[in-house]
Amino acid sequence: MSRFECVPNFSEGRDEAKIERIAAAARTVPGVTVLDVERNADHHRSVISLVGEGDALVEAVFRMMQVATATIDLTHHQGEHPRMGATDVVPFVPLGAAPMEEAVRLAERLGERVARELAIPVYLYARAARRPERADLAKVREGQFEGIRATIGSDPARAPDFGPAAVHPTAGAVAIGARPVLIAYNVYLTTPDVAIAKRIAKAVRARDGGLAEVKALGFEIAERHRAQVSMNLTDYHVTPIHRAFEAVRREAQRYGVAPEESEIVGLVPEDALFDAAEYYLQLHAFDRKTILERKVRAVDRAAGGESLASFSERLAARTPTPGGGSAAAAAGALAAALGEMVLAYSIDPERPDAELTAAHDELDRARRRFLELVEEDAQSYDRVRSARRDRKARPADPEAEGAWRTALRGAAEVPLGTARLAHAGTERLRSVGPRTKAALGSDLATARALFRAAIEGALANVEINLADLRSAGEAVDVWEREIAALRAGT
Question: Is 81 a catalytic residue?
């Protein structure tokens, strides 16, 4: 089943009891986890992050909206942040292999129910938008609660996608949509002058010619006697956190002020923080696999600590690793495990056959090694990416060129090891196959097919790296002969 994050924003940032009641409603739904609750008194807003599967997540958010509708009155609400509803915005965010199209369907399902049962008008936004202009949340929320209340019944452009052409008397309207991961990032300035913050926000946001995939507003944070540039980074791969911060810093210098500190609201992908660390520490050839916690997770996965569902989600995600080489190694692990099962049933415990027992033990060792190769392949590719960036940054540096070639050789050697191990497994099953139980013939055939897939997939990855080595002037004849021999052997 696909999993999604949902990050509903509520127009309540001061009454902790209300916020807890809203969050508690989600905790009553099995299969949904509340990951984080953030509140801001000046913005008078809270952001609650949930994760779960589709139907359960829709139910959890609906229950939260029921509580918000009953407890938040927008006619008495004043805060720095723009708002249109008690539940102001509800984005569904696909995780792992979850498709965006399914996130859109979740938004539509929730929107239809909210309109029907809570009598709240619903605007679909971002990837779920049914009108092009509603892809931009700022356009949907333009005029805020009071402006929408005055025009929703008379202006066709204000017609909601679901629900009545009239705002709920106290809960207003809501924007429900689907989008990729977004980072909410605020920078506090060394001034209380909100006019400066607003000028900086205009300079850095995309719609006014600033940074791509950045939305920004300037606010006065009275509690701290500071002005704030509040940003949404809608694609941190395009504009990372450090670039947004540096843009604010440069603009602030024009007005004789500076950033005092910054904050992240809600959850953030770890790679976004590593991007910033690499930038500020000037780590030009940093291998993220050397991070202690990632190394521990990799060891846990290699020891079988990761579920097949989790691995397949990592594999399906729009990330460079794990990729085909890791998948080939995983296929080898499944083949070895299936071979072990066939042999376990075929060995008579009263009179164990020495050859079958040896084959079983060999496949057991192979399975464990394949699991290590799953992670090693991802690590080797990450090293290639790092070396490629370094080589591009220092094109005339022999050391960078040498590191690039070394990384390529490593990236070829790892999948070649997968192919060798899978070939050995194939030969082992071929030799003992006639002595296994006939009833397990289909399992044996599946194991052999998986070994063949592991060999072909791994060799394809070897050849990709050999092409780069050949272009760099490296001799690859020995590698190519072994590839041909392994293919002939299958």
Answer: yes
Out of 43, 81, 225, 237, the active site residue is: 81
Contacts of 201-206 with CB under 8 Å at 24 or more apart are 201/229, 201/230, 201/231, 203/247, 203/251, 204/229, 204/231, 204/244, 204/247, 204/248, 204/251, 205/231
Please indicate, yes or no, if residue 283 is contained in any of the structural domains.
Answer: no
CATH number at residue 193: 3.30.70.670
Confidence of residue 102 (pLDDT cuts 50, 70, 90): very high
Helix or strand holding residue 439 (H, E)? none
Confidence tier at 297 by pLDDT (50, 70, 90): low
Task: Report the Cα–Cα distance between both ends of the chain, in Å, rounded.
Answer: 35
Say what the alpha-carbon torsion angle 364, 366, 367, 370 is, to the nearest 10 degrees. 170
In a shared domain, residues 102 and 242:
no
Classify residue 392: in a domain, yes or no. yes
Domain boundary among 157, 178, 199: 178
Same domain for 256 and 122?
Answer: no
For residue 84, give the nearest of 17, 28, 14, 134 by alpha carbon.
134
Mean pLDDT of the chain: 91
Structure pTM?
A: 0.60
Say if residue 322 is preceded by a cis peptide, omega within 30 of 0.
yes
Q: What's the number of domains the chain is made of?
A: 3
Cα-Cα-Cα-Cα torsion 262, 267, 271, 272, nearest 10 degrees, comes to -30
Domain endpoint, select from 178, 204, 237: 178
Distance CA 197, CA 190 (A): 10
Task: Let me know how long the chain is.
Answer: 490
